Amino acid sequence: DARVTQTPRDKVTEMGQEVTMRCQPILGHNTVFWYRQTMMQGLELLAYFRNRAPLDDSGMPKDRFSAEMPDATLATLKIQPSEPRDSAVYFCASGLETGNYGYTFGSGTRLTVV
Amino acid sequence: KQEVTQIPAALSVPEGENLVLNCSFTDSAIYNLQWFRQDPGKGLTSLLLIQSSQREQTSGRLNASLDKSSGRSTLYIAASQPGDSATYLCAVLTSGTYKYIFGTGTRLKVLA
Fold it and tell me: Of the candidates A72, A69, A64, A57, which has an alpha carbon nearest to the alpha carbon of residue A19?
């Protein structure tokens, strides 16, 4: 089965440190999403890309978060500096442009900022 | 702005019961709707995808229906088992966008 791969699985870091999360979308998928899940807010969309170009990152705190796709096989989400309120599970998902076949989610990166 | 609601928020049933989970959405102009399962501490597993032109989809003991005009989808689980215990999320892809909007989920517990 094709899958979306996210690394690291878990990350514990101190406040103020830089955090980088990585995602390898399914080969051939040209749409990539970053979601954040917390108990309070549920699943929130942070950013999405089509053909490596950012289409919408309005859900992301711009002062500290950045998302990029350096190539078609890698998406990154960076937080600098990290804060305790960033603690959450971050999911990456990928799919085809029209969403015809739905989207496939990775297993997530659980981030804890202390 | 699309809003997705799931009722009930939590459900506890004895093993063997048939059950229905509900998902409602405010904008009926949708492209498709996807049901996911999430086990504690895990990612999202896709269960069923219903296109806007379809009325239902089935996979094993699961059946999902879609009534676009009333803004509702239901996930029917037949003969529930303890292994079905998880959180079930529905996500809606609104026409003209490429992003899923998620409901808050139904936390299901099936008792042996």
Answer: A64
Sheet holding B56-59, edge to edge: B4-7, B19-25, B72-77, B62-67, B56-59
Contact B30, B68 (CB under 8 A): yes
Strands A65-71 and B4-7, by their bridges, are: unpaired
Contact check, Cβ <8 Å, B43/A33: no
By a Cβ cutoff of 8 Å, what residues of chain A touch chain B?
31, 33, 35, 42-43, 45, 48, 50, 55-56, 91, 93, 97-108, 110
The residue type found at B7 is I
Run means of pLDDT, 10 residues per run, chain B, 112 residues: 93 96 95 94 91 94 96 97 97 86 95 94
Quick: pLDDT tens for A12-27. Answer: 999 999 999 999 999 9
* Helices within B1-112 (DSSP H only): none
How far is residue A49's CA from residue A40's CA, in Å, rounded to a whole number? 26
Determine the Cα angle at A108 with ends A101 and B61, to 5°.
50
